[in-house]
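Subject: Sanity check before I submit

Could someone independently write out the structure tokens for this chain? I want to compare against mine line by line before I put it in a report. The sequence has 508 residues.
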Amino acid sequence: MGVESTFMQSRRHTTAPPRPKIQLQDDAWLNDRAPRVQGPLQEQAEEPTILLNREDAKPSKMGALLRVNDFIGYGHPLWPAMLHISELIWRDLHNTSDAINPLDPSSVEDVRKRAVALLRTELAARQVHGLTEASLLLRGIVNEVLGYGPLKPLLQDKNVTEVIAIGPRHISIQYGDRLEEVPCYFADERHMRRVIENCLLLAKPHIRQNGPVTEAYLPDGSLLIVAMPPSVINGPVVTIRKRGTKPLTLSELVAGGTLNAPMADFLQACIQARLNIVICGNVGSGKTTLLNALCGCISEHERIVTIEEVSELHLKQKYVIQLVVNLSQSPGIDTACNLVMHARHLRPDRMIVGECRGNEAGELLRAMYSGYQGAMTTMYAQHMRDCLTRLELLCIAGGMSVPTGLLRSEIAGALDMIIYLARRADGTYKISNIAEVRGVDNSGNIKLQSIFHYRDRGVDGESGQIKGIYEPTGICPSFLSKLEAMGVQLSREIFLSNASGTLSKNRS
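---
Independent answer below. Compare away.
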């Protein structure tokens, strides 16, 4: 049974909440007996926003505050009236056989007319004073009936990267490297279910239901993940992972301490020389952020094909084909693998896979081994050796029935470099290691040679931040001649551990 039909059943078996007690007063501004309101009610005012308190730069002091003048949220005087009217309209619309399209301007106009009619006849709220509040109330009703409800201002804040709602009374945001609870609430679980169904209507047809979890793409490319009771015991759970708009550059990552300038120069040279690279690390370690930065180093004259399950790559080059997994496909179809296979037919100069976690790993490996250069991808891994082990297991799970030794030789022949990222205890992101893949040793294991690494130097007692340095290992990569053959010039001094200025500039 689909998630939408589940919501419909829950509505039929749930009794309606009591109407809020709203007393009528002089409502001449909305009554048929007085001149009707025309212009101001039809105008779109400034969209609601979340203001983050930045008086103290420390993240622990950061708070999220709603601008009550722009948005009707929990505790606002118009909150009961808005909820009651919006539920009446929502029920009426969803009990009809007509399909609802929240993105259709006619649907918005229909909701506004219904709201004005109800305000004139049934629920003229005592708290509504004048046209400004009336316009605010109408915008809130439209948002509740067709939009994201209390989540809207959070989704509109460009500084918020993720919104997490665990039940109606616990909503948090990911802001930078901090996860913080915010004073936004649903009235109850019934209210939360209405907003969830609004989100699913907005996401059509990009919806995939796999057991108790529903995944969908919202119109702006954000990923919506919904889990409903009884699979979760603390109420409905909603996660919206927003699609970023401006990727960081390597220079910005250097400024933020993720790597140092010599490492950035080296990585940029590796991209220009079209090396095959895997970026690995734990969840939330910055793998996609680094991949975006490395993609920014690709020449604008190259033909690039990207394959992703969630659209997170932002390439500015001219010749880019972005392939995204179709969530409406059956769960048993490995569409990421199919997209990698079809991407080869497009004859790209570069093939970028957002994340390898299934059969697409084997297909990408075949492409790299057969001559595609400059391929990049990310993988989850606990450490660099674990990255190779997981890649091997994914290839075997994907049907590559070859002897282990031969498979490892193919992996070593396809990959040039592995980059390992880690998020430190102080919340900072560091490239812990950059290593070259150097074939297979006599024992049948893939050889790795570290080129740059990050060395911890304890914790600063005052700031609590981890101190450390980036340093080269003193070993030049064997593919340096390949870089030079392709016209990429890179000073060998950056690989020397005693290179002038290498250590002094990289303390963090």
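---
OP: Matches mine. For the report I'm noting this point. The mean pLDDT is 81.
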